[in-house]
């Protein structure tokens, strides 16, 4: 038996108008999918009887997004959009031109909120794998992560090579670095290159920071045959 949480129960009963006997699909965010029948709805809580369980691996390539810290609530928008697209890992980072400055306490609160939004996005898109949230990295932390990525692309408006030419035919994992509102400085791009990243352009148009990551993730999904 599976008991849904308050939010999921409300969505099933009030939004989808389900009742006892209705078929539901429950995902755990870690690759597990359960096909079940609603058995009880007492007190507004849904209890379902599992008919079948399945597990699956994340599709290749896994996509990681390292997003420059944006101001306001734009971080929430980024997480929701790229989590719905199936991004595997999401982290924010501090940089020279970032407007947002988060202390450790605020970064912890934001990380918890982003994790909740990533889980909700996975449920909406019926993705059995929720995005993993890695909080806020320092600039040094970002450079260290770049050194561990097998394929890292730095989105930069001054890059002369388009994204499609930076991507291999096949890959197990691809990381994207997206700058904040003010973009990445030339010095920062050089440091990222030294750490193993390669600069690439999304084209002649300049996208807002909250739109660049979803556009790039969608381009990767198309390139590797996971979309379209």
Word description of this protein:
By secondary structure, the protein is an alpha/beta fold. It folds into two domains: 2-55, Beta Barrel (Ribosomal Protein L25, Chain P); 62-223, SPOUT methyltransferase, trefoil knot domain (Alpha/beta knot, 3-Layer(aba) Sandwich), CATH 3.40.1280.10. The chain is built from seven helices and ten strands. A hairpin with a 4-residue loop joins strand 2 and strand 3. The protein is elongated. The two termini are 37 Å apart.
- Strand percentage, roughly? 25-35%
Structural class: alpha/beta
Low-pLDDT sequence parts: none
Tertiary shape: elongated
Order of helices and strands: EHEEEEHEHEHEHEHEH
Count the beta strands: 10
CATH class category name of the largest domain: Alpha Beta
Distance between the termini: 37 Å
Average pLDDT confidence is 91
SSE layout and pairing:
Elements: E1 2-3, H1 6-15, E2 23-27, E3 32-40, E4 47-55, E5 62-68, H2 74-84, E6 89-93, H3 104-124, E7 132-137, H4 139-148, E8 152-155, H5 163-166, E9 173-178, H6 186-194, E10 197-200, H7 209-223
Parallel strand pairs: 5-6, 5-9, 6-7, 8-9, 8-10
Antiparallel strand pairs: 1-4, 2-3, 3-4
């Amino acid at each position: 038996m599976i008991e849904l949480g308050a939010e999921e129960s409300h969505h099933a009963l009030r939004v989808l108008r389900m009742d006892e006997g209705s078929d539901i699909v429950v995902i755990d965010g870690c690759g597990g999918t359960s096909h079940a029948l609603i058995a009880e709805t007492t007190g507004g809580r849904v209890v379902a009887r599992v008919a079948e369980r399945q597990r699956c691996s994340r599709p290749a390539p896994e996509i990681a997004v390292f997003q420059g810290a944006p101001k306001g609530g734009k971080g929430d928008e980024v997480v929701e959009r790229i989590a719905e697209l199936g991004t595997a890992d999401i982290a924010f980072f501090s940089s020279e031109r970032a407007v947002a400055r988060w202390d450790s306490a605020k970064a912890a609160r934001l990380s918890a909120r982003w994790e909740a939004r990533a889980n909700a996005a996975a449920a909406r898109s019926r993705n059995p794998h929720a995005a993993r949230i890695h909080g806020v990295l320092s600039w040094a932390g970002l450079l260290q992560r770049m050194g561990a990525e097998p394929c890292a692309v730095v989105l930069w408006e001054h890059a002369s090579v388009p994204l499609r030419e930076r991507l291999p035919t096949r890959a197990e994992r691809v990381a994207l670095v997206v700058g904040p509102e003010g973009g990445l400085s030339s010095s920062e791009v050089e440091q990222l290159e030294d750490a193993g990243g390669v600069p690439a352009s999304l084209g002649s148009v300049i996208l807002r920071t909250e739109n660049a990551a979803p556009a790039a993730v969608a381009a990767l999904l198309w390139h590797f045959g996971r979309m379209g």
